[in-house]
Amino acid sequence: MTFNRLFSRAVQVSRVGSRSAFTSSKPDLTNPNWLRVGLAFGSGVFLWGLLFKQHSTDVHEYKVRNGLE
What we know:
mainly alpha, elongated
């Protein structure tokens, strides 16, 4: 057998014996996964809440250290 025949045969065998890890179905946009949507928005709200709380704490500490309060 020539190298080309051997190589093409190996490619065919490897395609049959495995499947792509990147194959997936298209997302159903008419029926979203509400658990994932809720977790995404809930974690965003939680992180923004922590950000505002930390900011107010930092502003208060700044005012106390500089005698502004």
